[in-house]
Amino acid sequence: MDVTDLRVFEAVARLGSMNQAAAELHTVQSNVTARIRALERELGVPLFSRHVRGVSLTPAGQRMLPYAGRIARLVADARLAATDEGAPGGDLVLGTLETTAALRLSPILTSFARMYPQVRMSLTTGTSCSLATDVADCKLDGAFIAGPLDHPDLHGEAIFHEELVVVTARTVSSLGALAAIPSLKTIVFRQGCSYRQRLDALLAEMGILVATPLEFGSLDAIIACVGAGIGITLLPRSVVAGAARQALVALHEVAPEHRDVETLFIRRHDAYVSNAMRAFVEVSRGEFQSLKAAA
User: How many CA atoms lie within 13 A of 183 on its CB side?
Assistant: First the structure.
């Protein structure tokens, strides 16, 4: 077993296709197939089940996949550590919450791109749970998530502080009025969103039963539906302050245990901290300090 075998294995597992893996790795399908078969012979177990739609991992393959990703990342880190000299450069693959992207990242990204033009950055959005998993699995170099963080492989640093509020239609006068709404719905991001979990806990404490949540992937869609009276949500005050000023929604304060949340920047404990990563965290810290000074 060598690093190339593991790279081929990871690509096939992720794409579910020998042909697509070959295209990504800039080789031919017969080479990918031969490497996977040789790896299976060496291990003495099948790693993939073959079917008409492609391939899927066997239980043995599923157990092996996380280690293949870590080994590939270690090799990449070793190469980066040896060549990471001078001004920050190279690739930086990051993730963020939708709310953080909408509210906080624009000045950070603008400053960073101006200061370090040699860094090639890509950004994806997700929930706190999915982003933490992707960082732990080495699919992302780092990510902004909502705290707290409880993962043995990850390091988190508080970057921003947010105040959460319940967001409702203007016709809802108070949190107490929610109990009188028949078939109350919550409008939230998909499962794994920490704001969604906090809203569920808040409503449970109030003894309010809700219908099946409505899931959206867009912050604008959530705010629009709440304003239309379709349901309620829980979001950072700064994200919805503009909609409240325009009288599109109403905001309701909640108890501190549900209100206060820190946005963390997370990365793997054992990952090499590149010049690009170090610079990005420093720029993020600087933006936070600027916000505190302006408050």
Answer: 4
